[in-house]
């Protein structure tokens, strides 16, 4: 899952991004509304965690722009105000969910994951394919009943492949969904991660390389 965090309190923004990355999400961070508009014009995000009171361009206007573009991106709006009227206004603008500050980080993660599931064809909370069972919420992976310990990027790549339900996923798509914009697209990080993931999942191999196209399970 790829997430954009838009928050002008840099310490909070960086802390949120770090926590989401630990949950195997690819996260980009910006600190004002103008930068947010630039990013959503370039990258495809599953979820935008959007502070409402932003400098340069207000969070409301960023949210309206996402709606106007008809993007499948879901918006979780943050605000220091807990007034019901503010929550209602934010939802009417086009936000998909609303979380007042201060918030429990566990709740933020749960809401981001719930919104991420709504950006594509609905799938069950626990993904199962080819003898593999993946639980995104608990960050657990089992193969034929055996637990498999994965690093965050390995987990993210496996989740993208599982969600594709047998379709081929290109290296570029994996890079888009599992890494942030600071990753050099010309590195072999995808190939190395897939190779390590194959080894950890064990025999017989379940990740198939489709020459010239990508990977599938």
- Count structural domains: 2
Sheet with the most strands, sense and barrel status: 5 strands, parallel
Helix content, binned percent: 40-55%
Question: Rg to the nearest angstrom?
Answer: 18 Å
Note the gap between the termini: 18 Å
CATH topology of the largest domain, by name, is: Rossmann fold
The tally of beta strands, per DSSP, is 11
Q: Structural class, from secondary structure content?
A: alpha/beta
Shape type? elongated
Spell the H/E element sequence.
Answer: EHEHEHEHEHEEEEHHHEE
How many helices in DSSP terms? Answer: 8
Mean pLDDT: 89
Poorly predicted runs are: none
GO biological process, one term: regulation of DNA-templated transcription
Modified residues (4-aspartylphosphate): 51
Protein name: Transcriptional regulatory protein CutR
Function: Member of the two-component regulatory system CutS/CutR, involved in the regulation of copper metabolism. CutR suppresses a defective melC1 gene, encoding a putative copper-transfer gene, probably by altering copper metabolism.
Report a brief summary of the structure:
Residues 124-217 form the OmpR/PhoB-type domain. The protein is α/β, with parallel strands linked by helices and 217 residues long.
């Amino acid at each position: 899952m790829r997430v954009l965090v838009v928050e002008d309190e840099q310490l909070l923004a960086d802390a949120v991004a770090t926590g989401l990355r630990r949950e195997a999400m690819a996260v980009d961070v910006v600190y004002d509304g103008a930068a947010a508009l630039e990013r959503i014009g370039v990258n495809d995000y599953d979820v935008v965690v959007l502070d409402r009171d932003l400098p340069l361009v207000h969070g409301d206007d960023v949210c309206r722009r996402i709606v106007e573009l008809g993007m499948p991106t879901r918006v979780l709006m943050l605000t220091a105000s807990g007034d019901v009227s503010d929550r209602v206004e934010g939802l009417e603008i086009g936000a998909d969910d609303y979380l007042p500050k201060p918030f429990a980080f566990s709740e933020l993660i749960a809401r981001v994951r719930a919104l991420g599931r709504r950006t594509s064809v609905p799938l069950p909370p626990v993904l199962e394919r080819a003898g593999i069972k993946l639980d995104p919420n608990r960050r657990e992976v089992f193969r034929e009943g055996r637990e498999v310990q994965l690093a965050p990027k390995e987990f993210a790549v496996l989740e993208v492949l599982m969600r594709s339900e047998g379709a081929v996923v290109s290296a570029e798509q994996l890079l888009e969904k599992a890494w942030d914009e600071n990753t050099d697209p010309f590195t072999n990080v995808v190939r190395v991660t897939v190779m390590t993931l194959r080894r950890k999942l064990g025999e017989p191999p379940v990740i198939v390389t489709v020459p010239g196209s990508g990977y599938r399970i």
